[in-house]
Specification:
Radius of gyration: 19 Å
Shape: globular
Helix content: 25-40%
Number of helices: 10
Structural class: alpha/beta
Strand order of the largest sheet: 2-3-4-5-6-7-8-9
Largest sheet: 8 strands, parallel
Amino acid sequence: MELKHILFGVLLCHSAGSVLCTANAGANGKTKKLLAALSNLRGKVLSGVFGGYNNHGGEIGFSLDQANRIKQYTGKSPAVYGIDCSPGWLTAPAYHEANIIECMHPQAVEYANRGGFITVSHHLPNPQYAGNTNKDGDGAFKTNITNTEFAAILQEGTPQRNRWWNMMEKIAKGLQGYKDRGITVLYRPLHEMNGDWFWWGALQVESQNGERQRLYKLLWQDLFYFMQKKGLDNLLWVWSPDQSRPFKTNYYPGDNFVDIVGLDGYVDNPTQIQGYDEISRLRKPFAFAEVGPSTTNGQFDYDWFVKTIASKYPKTVYFMPWNAEWSPVNNKNPWGAYNNGIVLNLGELRVR
């Protein structure tokens, strides 16, 4: 990518109010250049993979293992590397829910310094529950809350608001660590909101979801303004509903609060992904922000997936497979996926 293309995108934003403008008008120069670069890939797509959950051990814990194994299998390293910093199935002492969150990791910094792009996501603790502990004693990230309970998260002086505020403080502390090291973060909070499996998402009773959609947008905007006031000018905000559920854009927070749009999708046939046209009409760079097979038998063909991106989803700027049983190295044809001619791997897109 020639530097003149990156600089052109930034100038276009200032002169014409283009969609290339960062949601945070005060974003730093490197962050603006990255958005402009992603908007000018001209048919190329960045490879990615999810590196795991911070604050967690075992196979799903964050490390560079996924990147190393992909390099071993394919000779290439992914350009985008994912870390989830909130394993919300954990519990904590009451008033210490934010202890579950840790967004900073030295190996993520290491990968960024090698030329990678870091994306940060969450499976956040539930502010409705002290200690993130639901009535069954489990972590409450998948425990539904009512609209009244959701509204309390946004209401000053409530216990829910206090817990949410502490969580935002802890998130900001981690994201500040990346800023201090000159790293732009592809920040993907509150994902798959049109599904009914996370506390911030849809309700099973559809008649209540008009209000839920309004509250979700307010929560996203609350988080956005909080990070903006913290001076976190190194974030590109990534919004990704689930491909399998309807009402995707009903949850869209607005152009002024989103930089990159996308879809999360677990499918066995990538030609059947739903919602690409709807989401790409938002005129933001489009990503497959979280992908993998729905049947975890090791037979998903990632080469087919990338070829399908080229033929059916040409506006895609990056794709990020999940790890563990969804990982390319635990399925078929990772070599073909990461060596496809449209794919840019680690070090092949430089933004300074």
